[in-house]
Structure formats: structure tokens, C-alpha cells
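Render 1-acyl-sn-glycerol-3-phosphate acyltransferase in 3D.
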Amino acid sequence: MLFTLRMLAMGVHFILAGIAGLLLGLCRPFNPDNSRLCARLYSLPALPILGISLKTDVAPLLAREQACVIVANHQSNYDLYVLGRVVPRRTVSIGKKSLKWLPFFGQLYWLAGNVLLDRGNAVRAKQAMLTTTETLQHRDTSIWVFPEGTRNGGGALLPFKKGAFQMAIAAGVPIIPVCVSSYAGRLRLNRRHAGEVLIRSLPALPTTGLSLDDLPALMAQCRQQMQHCIDQMDQQLQHARADARGEGR
């Protein structure tokens, strides 16, 4: 019963947040800070509706002094609500061009200033990549990327794709990894307290002086650090749950 009520409430919330986001985008189209504000519109009401307790430790992310490429693990559609709490100012993301035609969300995503890639057209994809480099270097705007390219379902990190790291090296900007504890498939949405999720950002990985020859090592370093952090957070939550069960006996 609680699960059904939550899904109904989330449906209403999604529509209302979409309308508010569209109005924001129409009032100041393509403003690079629209994405952060829209993310908050979706996230702040959604977390209590879903019964998710969120704890964040993202000082390196919020303290950034220059544009960067932010990479995060991608678990489920709920990432919109979980990660929406920590999107920093002047940050956009990269999505498929087809997103633009999704009712409500697609138009909001486009007006929020996010970068839309036509992956089926090599020329346009290359031009979009040049646009992201210019955005990072000259517009004081960071780019958020899910380097796995698809949802991992809460399991181990999938192999990383090169795009985010190529962008960072081309623009000479640092990479900031953002790690989310494994929650996909573990939330109990039929209970008042559905679960706890941890988010932690890691120290920036510099790319100054690197070339594409350094790409494999940079990707491996980033993926290893993120997986280690996720494993640590998962163990922390597991110990906390075990302690809570012990105190309840």
C-alpha cells in the first residue's frame, strides 16, 4: 500500500517539477545554472516522498574553483533524485539528442543548457565534442558525465567509456569523481524508511600536461578509486544496519 501511494505521489511530483522547470527554462533559456536548480526541484521533495535518507560528503566537489568534468556511477532512474542534491553551480550534463523530444522532461533538459549529442552522426558528434571543450575552457561551466554509459543496476562499475576523459584532457581541466553507495534493488519502498544512501566526492584528478596516450591509465585510476570508495560506503552501511539490528534485539 505504501509503495503504491509513493508512486502516485512521485507521479504528481514529476509533473509539477517538470512544469516548474520548464517555466524556469523559458524565463532564462540555456542558463548553465538551470540544471542545478532543476535538479533541486526534482530531488528535494522526492527524497522524503520516497523515504530515502541521504548523507553527503562532497566538499571537493563544492569547493572547486574552476570548470571540471564530473564523473559519477549510474545505477537507476532514481539517480535524478539522489544525485540532484549535489549538482554544483554552473554544471550541465550530456545526453542523447533524442531526449529533446520526450514530453516535459526533454524540453526541460534542453532549455536547462545541457549538451545533446547525435551519436548516430559522426560529424555532429565531433562538433558537439568541440563545443564541450569550449564550454569547459571559456564559460566557467562544468560537465557531468556517467562514464559507464548505462545503468549498472547497483552492481560493480561497468567499463568506462572514453568520452568524459577525452573531454577533460582536451580542455585541460580536472576530473572530480562522485561516488554513490549501492542502492538500486536495495531500497524498501514499501517501508516508512526505505533506506540510506551515501554520496562522496573524491579529490580532483588533474589532467594538465596529459595526452591521449595517458587516457587508459587515467581511466583505470579513476575507476579503481571510485570502486574502492563505493565498496567502503557499502561496508559502512552494512555495518550500520547490523548494529541497528543488534540494538533492536
